[in-house]
Amino acid sequence: MLSIIDRYILREVVKVFIAVFGTVLLIVFGMLFLQTLEQVNAGALNPDLVLRFMGLKVARDVAALLPPVFFIAVLAALGRMARDSELIALGACGLGPAQTYRSLFLAAIPIAMLTSWLSFHLSPLAAGEIQQIRARQKEQVQQIATIKAGRFYQQADGQITVYVEEIQDNSSLRNIFIHDRRDGEMRLILSDRGMLRNDKPSGEQFVTLLEGRRYDGMPGEPDYALGEFEKYNLRVEPRELEAMRTSKRATYRTGELVGSDDIKDKAELQQRISGPLAVLTLTILSVPLTTKSPRQSGAWRLFLAFLTYFSFFNLQRVATGWYEMGATPPWLGSLWYQVLILVLVLGVLVPDGAWLKRVRRSGGRGRTDRGDTGAAASV
């Protein structure tokens, strides 16, 4: 059962966390919106896919936002309590760092679990969807680009052959010839004019023939038929997306990475583990990084908190890169930077802690007592 102190600290942290996370999410969403509009203007993305594309990008990156946002939220909440002398009041009531850690971990553990689910499950799915959208757009652009005037274009393993004598304004076609041998049948489609068309709802590409003629079967056969049409659409088929899968391990399912002997697969798996682990590590560092009293100067601890933040996430990329290149031994992995920063920060702050000051004061009183005893004996 949660105590009053647990509920109070938990409420303060969650309140700040929601505010900070919402602000960061709006900033990220705005930046992604501008980047996506640039891709739309460049013709690399269908305008109808903008919202879906942005949603997938946010789903892919949100796992990386939670650890730093939670760290900032904890520092802000504890800093506010320190300015109002609430941490001193808790200490005077016998509620020290242990009670503070208990309350913080009541929030940190659910955030770490959410980060785990996002890193292990949602982010790979979103990254895979993003890759498929990009591959589909690129493939459609490439396939349309391969239809050139005076050249033959084939698809469906050579069963469909397209010839265009002239292309005007990159979309208007003149004198189109289509030879279709799918399903064992022979079809010949001719038209004096047509166009290259993009279907916005589906994002698919079509060659559309206008007011043409169609011949089905072989001349002289009983099933031979001919006719005219006002419009005939031929879909430019994209390649199978599964065959487009690249070496980007961010799209791999976590189950594919577990047990793999490939060093890059191991690095990707440890990269996903680092997110939830970072939430817990930064929670441990947040308490000693907080000034306990409004009378104490917080500039040094604030500087150290910013240094910890930037060093933590910069070293994360460095450690992963070193591990992939084999610069670090396999047994060390790529998570060593979290232990290193934890030891360094605690090593800097613990000597300035209250418990060590009490030890020093006790030692000082002992030396004073021995000095007084020696002086009395000499007298």
Structure description:
The structure is a single chain. The protein starts with a helix and ends with a helix. The chain has two domains: 4-140 and 245-372, no CATH class; 157-236, no CATH class. It has nine helices and six strands. The longest helix is centred in the N-terminal third of the chain and has 50 residues, at 97-146. The relative contact order is 0.09. The model is unreliable at 240-246 and 373-379 (pLDDT under 50). It is 59% helix and 16% strand. Strand 3 and strand 4 form a beta hairpin. It is of the alpha+beta class and 379 residues long. A six-stranded antiparallel sheet has the order 1-2-3-4-5-6. The protein has helices at 4-41, 50-83, 86-92, 97-146, 254-257, 263-286, 299-325, 336-349, 354-378, and strands at residues 152-155, 160-168, 172-180, 187-199, 204-216, 225-236. Helix 1 (4-41) packs parallel to helix 4.
